[in-house]
């Protein structure tokens, strides 16, 4: 056995081997050590190899999915070796013959299909990046749904594309993955190097044509060689990991460059589009706006939120669908109620194509087809915009398949086909006959038990069954004599410590009939399951279209429900540089405040005439919230949703860049300031005149004058070179002067009020520059000790006075006595030494000076400087 194990293990480098041993998957040697630690299960040993104990651990087959999920999440790949024959058959070749085993599947992060291993509301993407000469391409699939996409992708665009997709696994050619390893890791994906030949575009084209049963790929689009190479790598990898059992894939869709809003990885993190800062979904924009009731609708929402459209016709069509359901509240509620009964058709189809489905997957398709028919009836006669009308048209046509499944399946079928019992009575005559014999046989057994009890005079006599003896009669040892008194009827079979077991000729004959009937019924049900699966897969195309139509309706109804419940407005989208938001709100912050019973202060934003706002004001006043809310409003508008505002008019936004907050990147040796500068450099190099840029505190990570200079230059560059729309938040009040010097730059500030030494945040954005940053007051609110706050006020006052009197701040700092962190005591007032000029002016009374005396005083003071 161990020889076989080592041979299979050698063929699966880099993967843990689940080696089937009866009811367990067992692991040995280093695999066992690694798995035991990762799964927190017992590590034991089994036999010896080369004189050393063999480490061993195992997991039950029936619970394997849970253990697989843990291993995949911890970065492992798992090869599953199954027994390919019955152990009883193997023994016929000799008592020491090893059961045949083969690897039937390689489980990797990007090739999951089991319901228990997947998040129903998220895609599970497997991606491949290919380079052919100077061209690059990225292809990706979701094996669990059959979705297949590809786009051109220069190496410089790989990081933002991976951030958009969030794939679980990325394929690259061996030897070419080095420069991209860190990018893949940052995207949270596993990097899998594969043989270079996997990316052969010529052979790959033939493979893809064979996969989709076409003579040319031209019917799907005009693909570049790099795109074909990336798609071919995915097809080859699926064939490798699924051992030839290819999943059901839809024809590839080519995404056109420029068709979607460009959002880089840093901006996605900053805006928390699909994941909050902590990494989870809660607190993200996606979690805030998701009102979908189906898994497919939720996945569609995430795709659109990750890649807002830049095509006006597409946006307007999606808006129209949402608007129609905002107005038709009754229809919207009816649709959402019916959609709750819809199952995940795409994933059920995928499992059927891979041979991993069960009767419940067939039932899910049956119920979804039936519900789709009821939805179509509800929509009949309604005046619908084009996109919803097309979706409604795809809801019908599956009635024949639905009737077949409805006739074939019971209402609540079991999970596994091998258990049987899922076929409805009356569907198959032969099955009904076998079931009748099986079930009546059980009734006959009960009658036979009563008859034998009466004949023997043993009322406690029982007829039982086990896998070794089959059916047998069992009595206690005290009644053995009564049974043996009738040897012509009861034949002795076995005596145990407390029971004696008998049989009869009649019982043996009945057992044969019952066992054959039960086995026959199960075999017939397996055939029925295969037949039904084939019937469903034959309609995979229309069923896929039906699933997409249901997702479209669900998404439109969900966005309409959001707009109606939150009182959001339909934005005006146009081909211009307009950006006018009236009473805009940050959707996530507003929701959080509402839960606390607090109001959100809405604010206007107008970047049409003045394309850049220079925003000043204290920390905690709401500058960052204001920056982000306007970016989020643009994103929501371009996915076709309503927006959290009273009104909005937005010219198409081609790119969104956000540099709000930063942190160290210690793994790559970057300080906070370096990270800030790298992100800012990317913005200045890439932003075009249709971009929306939000920047916060540029230059604050270095010396004051360095930072001010950088912020000054960045603002000028955005205005003169990039010519984009943007909001530039800063504490450098010196920048306020630029509003009067640069066309299209205006000052704005977040208003506050001072009251008895404290600062009150009004969260209102108003015209003009802020008077102060109120940093000391904010520090007091944060809980700094009162002594430290008082000291800060004194130092600030001295520095401001020094600045007004000639900028001698350094000398003033030298003169300030050091603060002693002693127990609370009165803080020493700063002592400033009297200068020569101050001494000369101490006794001068200006009102008593004649013009000549005043002039002489000026000359004398001039000589002191």
TrEMBL record:
<comment type="similarity">
    <text>Belongs to the DNA mismatch repair MutS family.</text>
</comment>
<keyword id="KW-0234">DNA repair</keyword>
<dbReference type="Pfam" id="PF01624">
    <property type="entry name" value="MutS_I"/>
</dbReference>
<dbReference type="GO" id="GO:0030983">
    <property type="term" value="F:mismatched DNA binding"/>
</dbReference>
<dbReference type="Pfam" id="PF05192">
    <property type="entry name" value="MutS_III"/>
</dbReference>
<dbReference type="InterPro" id="IPR007695">
    <property type="entry name" value="DNA_mismatch_repair_MutS-lik_N"/>
</dbReference>
<dbReference type="Pfam" id="PF05188">
    <property type="entry name" value="MutS_II"/>
</dbReference>
<dbReference type="InterPro" id="IPR036678">
    <property type="entry name" value="MutS_con_dom_sf"/>
</dbReference>
<dbReference type="InterPro" id="IPR045076">
    <property type="entry name" value="MutS"/>
</dbReference>
<keyword id="KW-0227">DNA damage</keyword>
<feature type="domain" description="DNA mismatch repair proteins mutS family">
    <location>
        <begin position="691"/>
        <end position="707"/>
    </location>
</feature>
<dbReference type="InterPro" id="IPR036187">
    <property type="entry name" value="DNA_mismatch_repair_MutS_sf"/>
</dbReference>
<keyword id="KW-0547">Nucleotide-binding</keyword>
<dbReference type="InterPro" id="IPR007696">
    <property type="entry name" value="DNA_mismatch_repair_MutS_core"/>
</dbReference>
<dbReference type="InterPro" id="IPR007860">
    <property type="entry name" value="DNA_mmatch_repair_MutS_con_dom"/>
</dbReference>
<keyword id="KW-0067">ATP-binding</keyword>
<feature type="binding site">
    <location>
        <begin position="617"/>
        <end position="624"/>
    </location>
    <ligand>
        <name>ATP</name>
    </ligand>
</feature>
<dbReference type="InterPro" id="IPR007861">
    <property type="entry name" value="DNA_mismatch_repair_MutS_clamp"/>
</dbReference>
<dbReference type="GO" id="GO:0005829">
    <property type="term" value="C:cytosol"/>
</dbReference>
<comment type="function">
    <text>This protein is involved in the repair of mismatches in DNA. It is possible that it carries out the mismatch recognition step. This protein has a weak ATPase activity.</text>
</comment>
<dbReference type="GO" id="GO:0003684">
    <property type="term" value="F:damaged DNA binding"/>
</dbReference>
<dbReference type="InterPro" id="IPR016151">
    <property type="entry name" value="DNA_mismatch_repair_MutS_N"/>
</dbReference>
<dbReference type="GO" id="GO:0005524">
    <property type="term" value="F:ATP binding"/>
</dbReference>
<dbReference type="InterPro" id="IPR000432">
    <property type="entry name" value="DNA_mismatch_repair_MutS_C"/>
</dbReference>
<dbReference type="Pfam" id="PF00488">
    <property type="entry name" value="MutS_V"/>
</dbReference>
<protein>
    <recommendedName>
        <fullName>DNA mismatch repair protein MutS</fullName>
    </recommendedName>
</protein>
<dbReference type="InterPro" id="IPR017261">
    <property type="entry name" value="DNA_mismatch_repair_MutS/MSH"/>
</dbReference>
<dbReference type="InterPro" id="IPR005748">
    <property type="entry name" value="DNA_mismatch_repair_MutS"/>
</dbReference>
<keyword id="KW-0238">DNA-binding</keyword>
<dbReference type="Pfam" id="PF05190">
    <property type="entry name" value="MutS_IV"/>
</dbReference>
<dbReference type="InterPro" id="IPR027417">
    <property type="entry name" value="P-loop_NTPase"/>
</dbReference>
<dbReference type="GO" id="GO:0006298">
    <property type="term" value="P:mismatch repair"/>
</dbReference>
<dbReference type="GO" id="GO:0140664">
    <property type="term" value="F:ATP-dependent DNA damage sensor activity"/>
</dbReference>
């Amino acid at each position: 056995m161990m020889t076989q194990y080592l041979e299979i293990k050698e063929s699966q480098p880099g993967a843990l081997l689940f080696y089937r041993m009866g009811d367990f998957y067992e692991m040995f040697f280093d695999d066992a050590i690694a798995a035991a630690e990762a799964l927190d299960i017992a590590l034991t040993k089994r036999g010896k190899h080369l004189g050393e104990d063999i480490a061993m651990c195992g997991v039950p087959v029936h619970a394997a999915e849970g253990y697989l999920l843990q291993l995949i999440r911890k970065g492992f790949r798992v090869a599953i070796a199954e027994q390919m024959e019955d152990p009883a058959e193997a023994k016929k070749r000799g008592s020491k013959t090893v059961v045949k085993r083969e690897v039937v599947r390689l489980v990797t992060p990007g090739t999951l299909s089991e319901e228990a291993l997947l998040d129903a509301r998220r895609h599970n993407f497997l991606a491949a990046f290919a380079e052919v000469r100077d061209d690059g391409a990225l292809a990706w699939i979701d094996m669990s749904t059959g979705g297949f996409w590809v786009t051109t992708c220069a190496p410089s665009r790989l990081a933002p594309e991976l951030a958009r997709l969030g794939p679980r696994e990325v394929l690259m050619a061996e030897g070419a993955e080095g420069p991209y390893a860190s990018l893949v890791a940052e995207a949270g994906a596993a990097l899998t190097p594969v043989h270079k030949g996997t990316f052969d575009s010529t052979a790959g084209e033939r493979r893809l044509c064979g996969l989709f049963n076409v003579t040319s790929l031209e019917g799907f689009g005009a693909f570049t060689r790099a795109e074909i190479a990336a798609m071919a790598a995915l097809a080859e990898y699926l064939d490798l990991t699924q051992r030839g059992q290819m999943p059901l894939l839809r024809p590839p869709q080519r995404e056109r460059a420029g068709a979607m809003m460009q959002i880089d990885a840093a901006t996605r993190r900053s805006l928390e589009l699909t994941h909050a800062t902590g990494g989870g979904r809660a607190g993200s924009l996606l979690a805030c706006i998701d009102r979908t009731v189906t898994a497919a609708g939720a996945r569609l929402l995430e795709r659109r939120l990750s890649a807002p459209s830049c095509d006006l016709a597409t946006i307007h069509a999606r808006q129209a669908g949402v608007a129609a359901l905002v107005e038709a509240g009754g229809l919207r509620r009816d649709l959402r109620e019916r959609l709750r009964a819809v199952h995940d058709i795409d994933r059920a189809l995928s499992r059927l194509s891979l041979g991993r489905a069960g009767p419940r997957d067939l039932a899910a398709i049956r119920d979804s087809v039936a519900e789709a028919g009821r939805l179509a009836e509800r929509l009949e006669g309604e005046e619908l915009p084009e996109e919803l009308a097309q979706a409604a048209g795809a809801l019908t046509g599956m009635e024949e398949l639905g009737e077949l499944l409805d006739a074939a399946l019971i209402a609540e079928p079991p999970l596994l086909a091998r258990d049987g019992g899922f076929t409805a009575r009356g569907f198959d005559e032969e099955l009904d006959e076998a079931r009748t014999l099986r079930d009546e046989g059980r009734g006959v057994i009960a009658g036979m038990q009563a008859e034998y009890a009466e004949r023997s005079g043993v009322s406690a006599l029982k007829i039982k069954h086990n896998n070794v003896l089959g059916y047998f009669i069992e009595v206690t040892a005290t009644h053995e004599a009564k049974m043996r008194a009738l040897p012509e009827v009861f034949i002795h079979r076995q005596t145990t410590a407390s029971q004696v077991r008998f049989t009869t000729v009649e019982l043996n004959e009945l057992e044969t009939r019952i066992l054959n009937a039960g086995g026959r019924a199960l075999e017939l049900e397996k055939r029925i399951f295969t037949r039904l699966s084939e019937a469903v897969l034959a309609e995979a195309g229309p069923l896929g279209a039906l699933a997409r139509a249901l997702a479209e309706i669900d998404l439109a109804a969900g966005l309409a429900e959001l707009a109606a419940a939150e009182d959001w407005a339909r934005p005006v989208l146009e081909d211009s540089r307009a950006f006018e938001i009236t009473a805009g709100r940050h959707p996530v912050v507003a929701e959080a405040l509402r839960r606390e019973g607090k109001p959100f202060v809405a604010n206007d934003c107008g970047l049409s005439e003045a394309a850049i706002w220079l925003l000043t004001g204290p920390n905690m006043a709401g500058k960052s919230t204001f920056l982000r809310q306007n970016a989020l409003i643009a994103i929501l508008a371009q996915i076709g949703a309503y927006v959290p505002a009273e009104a909005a008019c937005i010219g198409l936004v081609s790119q969104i860049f956000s540099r709000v907050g930063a942190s160290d990147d210690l793994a790559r040796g970057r300080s906070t300031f370096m990270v800030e500068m790298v992100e800012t450099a990317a913005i200045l190099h890439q932003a075009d005149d249709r971009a929306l840029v939000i920047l916060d505190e540029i230059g604050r990570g270095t010396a004051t004058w360095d930072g001010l200079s950088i912020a000054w230059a960045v603002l000028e560059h955005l205005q003169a070179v990039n010519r984009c729309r943007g909001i530039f938040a800063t504490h450098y009040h010196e920048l306020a002067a630029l509003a009067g010097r640069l066309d299209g730059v205006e000052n704005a500030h977040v208003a506050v009020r001072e009251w008895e030494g404290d600062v009150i945040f009004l969260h209102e954005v108003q015209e003009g520059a802020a008077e102060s940053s109120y940093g000391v007051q904010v520090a007091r609110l944060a809980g700094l000790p009162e002594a430290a706050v008082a000291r800060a006020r004194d130092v600030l006052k001295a520095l401001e006075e020094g600045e007004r009197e000639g900028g001698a701040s350094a000398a003033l700092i030298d003169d300030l006595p050091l603060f002693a962190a002693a127990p609370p005591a009165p803080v020493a007032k700063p002592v400033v030494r009297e200068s020569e000029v101050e001494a000369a002016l101490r006794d001068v009374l200006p009102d008593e000076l004649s013009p000549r005396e005043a002039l002489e005083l000026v000359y004398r003071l001039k000589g002191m400087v």
